[in-house]
Amino acid sequence: MKLPIVAYGDPVLRKKAEEIDEDYPQLKELIDNMFETMYSAHGVGLAAPQVGLPIRLFVIDGSPFAEDEDGEGDADLKDFKRVFINPIIVKEHGEKWAFNEGCLSIPDINEEVMRPSNVVINYLDENFEEKEEELSGLAARIVQHEYDHIEGKLFVDKLGPLKKTMLKSKLDQIAKGQIRVGYKMKFPLQKKGR
């Protein structure tokens, strides 16, 4: 089932998410629904706060970055499909590099964001088995972006003051639902009856 994606401006996107345990209600169904929602919106990652749940869970499938139109891409992402439950970034390291990021909760805005090239993350998978991985390049970037969501942060927070000022009216329009998107969204400031 496709879930509505929460838009910029909703307080759930600013909450530090809570850990969950194996008894979390209908967890498998939630994970399946999050993947379905992410795929229908053409995303590569989706965090639980983006579907209105302040819990430490996100899903990733980096395969769209494995090959682009030119036949180039990051082959390591071909099989990079994961569920991250209660993740902890143990270490971020390496040279910072810029990449044009976007977000399903902030449609139609893409900006260059600087992040470290490598990340070590500890997490539980969908079977609650503990994992620790070191990731680099785009895999690390996708994880860092989704991890920010469960920490109550958004990629626009990493932009400079001038860029934030330039984007303010567009962000306000997103919060009010004054945009068109090709997937179901929930807008926090949208006037009823529109």
From TrEMBL:
GO terms for biological process: translation. Its EC number is 3.5.1.88. Keywords: Hydrolase, Iron, Metal-binding, Protein biosynthesis. It is an enzyme of class 3 (hydrolase). Transmembrane segments: none annotated. Fe cation binds at C103, H145, H149. It comes from the Bacteria. Its cofactor is Fe(2+). InterPro entries: Peptide_deformylase, Peptide_deformylase_sf. GO terms for molecular function: metal ion binding; peptide deformylase activity. Pfam families: Pep_deformylase. This is Peptide deformylase. It comes from Sphingobacterium yanglingense.
